[in-house]
Structure formats: structure tokens, C-alpha cells
């Protein structure tokens, strides 16, 4: 159920390309008609839109509908971060995969992949001063054990992942109640990035943070997801897309439009019920599917990436059954629900930490309670 990548049908990718100084942003009207669901139908409602953050190029989504994931335009997602594994595939692993017949469903086709594609894991969102939000499941292994800090790295600064610049992950704080083998609730991680000698300062200076939300999103809100993850529609657990082709990631940041759905839509999917709680958003393509009825969606490799609304980080890609499948919405972490946890983790964590942390209260102040 974990979403570790994105899809053009599932791809909700936004671009992290630099914004030139003095680049004008497109002005939008103060209000915009957004589809809202009511009783299973779609109605239009007028709702004030949040202000566009400085330095971000805003595209009017009413005039630019996404079809199974489009390349993000320059400057529309300057907060996008890639999380990658620093543990390289061994020559034996590459050779073993190459020896498998193309018809073998376990074949990953590593020989077709560039190095960035082999080590790509997840997305993340820059929220300011080197702080990044991502998904907790990007930092634990299959036995639910935290990986080491040295096992993960980050890149950012351009829509084309081949032109991004690396940064070191200085600390990672996972929500203390997240369990990959359990309910999968609380799928959120906060990390801090620091530059290295390999960091391109010009690319770093061109990034912009997404804003944290001041309120939860509303059912019917039109949202945007971005990522470099898988670009093929697939069933849950499949290693090929539905046409039998190898799953491949996009070097260009992709974006797709989604709607915030009533939680009842996700409760209808049996495997989602143990995860649903106020910290989870139910998100799907409904009114923004293609003319052929194909759905846009996030997918494996998009996990941890941003779900935004006019520069505000609404959600974090978390999980779902398959990618781009009709009638199967996806689960996103509700960022507004974790405001206290984020504030406490930023204020009280220390360099070098790799820990699971809960937040308790002493009087009116949130206090971080961590276990390594």
C-alpha cells in the first residue's frame, strides 16, 4: 500500500525549477470556482484563495487541465525535494537482474535505468531554512526499523532531476506512532538538509519553501501533486504497468490535479479503514480524469512528496492501492493536523538525530518525547 513513486496516470509531479529574479507571477482573481462534492454529486462554490508565495509562478489550473501527469512548468514547485538511497546496487545484483528473462515478473530492468532512477526513493517538500517534510515510511525498512542517516540523501533545485544539486540530511524525526507494519497512521517525517562541498549554491538559492497551512483543506478543494515517481498505471504490488511494460520514473517533474474527497470514499476501500483518522486526507482524480476516463494519480516513488494548493502544503503523498486505478482514491497525510508536532520537532530536535518522536504538552507548550 505504500506509495514510493508517481505516475502520469498516477503522477502528480510539480517542478522545483529555479525562479529567475524579477520573474513576474501570473495574477489570479481573488476567488475561483472550485468543485465541491455534496451527496456524491459535484457542485461549484466560490471560495477565497490563499495568496501566492513570493517568487512562485502560479498557473491558473482552470485553463491548464492535467492529462495523466504533465511536465511541471518552471517555477511552479520550487520546494520539490528528492529523497534517494545512498546504498548502490552491487554488480551482482545488476548482473542477476540482467540474466532474468524479460518475461520474468521479478525483472526490474536495471540496465535500462540511469543511476538517479535506480537510487530514487521518495519526494519531499522544502518548508524553509533547510527543513523538509516527507513520509515516515521513506526512512524505515521492511522490518519497520529506522535506516541510518548515512543511508539517505537529498537533491533539489531543478525540475529536471538530472540537474538537481545534492544536500546532506543532517537529522530525521519520524512521528513516534508511525508503524509501517501496523495501521500506517501518522506517516510524516521532518528532516533538516545542510549543504556540502558538492552543493551548487546558485541552484540552492533559487529554491523556495512551500507555506504551512493555517487550516485544513475542504472537501472539493482542487489540489496539485508533483513528483518524479513511476509513470505507469499498475495494480497493487505489481512490478509492471497494466500494459506489461517495465515501470519507469520520470526525469522531468510531473504534476497532476486532484480533489479532496469525502473520507467515506476512502472508507469504502477495505484496506484503507485501519489507516483513516483525522491525520489522513482522502484524495482522488474524479473531476480531473482524462477524456478517456483515465485517472491521474500519485504512485511509487512519489511518496513523501507535496500535495499543494497555491503554494500551501496541504498533504504528503502516503499510500494507496495501485496507481491510477478507477475508484481507488489515495491516502495523504494531513499536514494541518500535525502543526504542533512539526513546530516541536523543529524547535527541539538536535543535529545527528534519527528518532521516533511524539509530542506531549506541559502546560501550553508542546514537548518532544523521542526514542532512537
Order of helices and strands: EEEEEHHEEEEEHEEHEEEEEHEE
- CATH superfamily label of the largest domain: Trypsin-like serine proteases
Low-confidence stretches: 1-49, 57-67, 287-292
Main sheet strand line-up: 11-12-13-17-16-15
What is the straight-line distance between the termini?
A: 26 Å
Count of DSSP-assigned helices: 5
Fraction of residues in helix: under 10%
CATH topology of the largest domain: Thrombin, subunit H
Radius of gyration: 19 Å
What number is the mean pLDDT? 79
CATH class of the largest domain: Mainly Beta
Overall spatial form: globular
CATH-defined architecture of the largest domain: Beta Barrel
Overall number of strands: 19
Counting helices, strands and paired strands, the structural category is: mainly beta
Total separate domains? 2
Beta fraction of the residues?
Answer: 25-35%
> What profile does the largest beta sheet have?
6 strands, antiparallel, barrel
Amino acid at each position: 500500500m505504500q506509495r514510493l513513486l508517481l505516475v502520469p496516470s498516477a503522477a502528480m509531479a510539480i517542478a522545483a525549477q529555479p525562479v529567475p529574479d524579477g520573474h513576474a507571477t501570473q495574477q489570479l482573481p481573488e476567488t475561483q470556482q472550485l468543485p465541491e462534492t455534496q451527496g456524491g454529486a459535484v457542485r461549484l462554490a466560490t471560495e477565497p484563495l490563499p495568496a501566492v508565495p513570493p517568487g512562485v509562478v502560479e498557473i491558473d489550473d482552470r485553463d491548464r487541465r492535467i492529462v495523466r501527469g504533465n511536465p511541471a512548468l518552471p517555477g511552479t514547485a520550487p520546494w520539490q525535494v528528492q529523497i534517494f538511497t545512498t546504498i548502490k546496487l552491487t554488480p551482482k545484483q545488476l548482473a542477476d537482474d540482467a540474466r532474468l528473462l524479460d518475461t520474468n515478473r521479478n525483472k526490474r530492468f536495471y540496465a535500462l535505468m540511469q543511476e538517479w532512477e535506480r537510487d530514487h526513493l521518495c519526494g519531499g517538500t522544502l518548508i524553509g531554512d533547510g527543513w523538509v517534510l516527507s513520509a515516515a515510511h521513506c526512512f524505515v525498512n521492511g522490518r519497520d526499523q529506522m535506516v541510518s542517516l548515512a543511508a539517505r540523501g537529498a537533491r533539489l533545485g531543478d525540475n529536471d532531476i538530472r540537474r538537481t544539486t545534492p544536500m546532506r540530511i543532517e537529522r530525521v524525526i519520524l512521528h513516534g506512532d508511525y508503524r509501517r507494519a501496523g495501521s500506517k497512521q501518522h506517516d510524516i517525517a521532518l528532516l533538516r538538509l545542510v549543504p556540502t562541498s558538492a552543493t551548487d549554491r546558485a541552484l540552492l538559492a533559487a529554491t523556495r519553501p512551500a507555506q504551512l497551512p493555517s487550516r485544513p483543506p475542504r472537501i472539493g478543494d482542487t489540489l496539485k501533486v508533483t513528483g518524479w515517481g513511476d509513470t505507469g498505471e499498475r495494480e497493487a504490488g505489481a512490478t509492471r504497468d497494466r500494459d506489461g511494460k517495465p515501470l519507469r520514473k520520470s526525469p522531468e517533474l510531473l504534476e497532476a490535479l486532484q480533489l479532496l474527497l469525502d473520507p467515506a470514499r476512502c472508507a469504502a476501500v477495505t484496506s484503507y479503514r485501519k489507516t483513516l483518522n483525522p491525520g489522513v486526507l482522502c484524495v482522488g482524480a474524479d473531476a480531473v480524469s482524462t477524456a478517456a476516463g483515465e485517472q491521474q494519480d500519485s504512485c511509487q516513488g512519489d511518496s513523501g512528496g507535496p500535495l499543494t494548493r497555491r503554494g500551501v502544503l496541504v498533504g504528503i503523498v502516503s499510500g494507496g492501492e495501485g496507481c491510477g486505478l478507477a475508484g481507488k482514491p489515495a491516502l495523504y497525510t494531513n499536514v494541518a493536523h500535525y502543526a504542533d508536532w512539526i513546530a516541536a520537532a523543529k524547535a527541539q530536535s538536535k543535529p545527528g538525530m534519527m528518532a521516533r518522536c511524539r509530542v506531549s504538552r506541559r502546560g501550553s507548550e508542546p514537548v518532544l518525547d523521542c526514542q532512537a
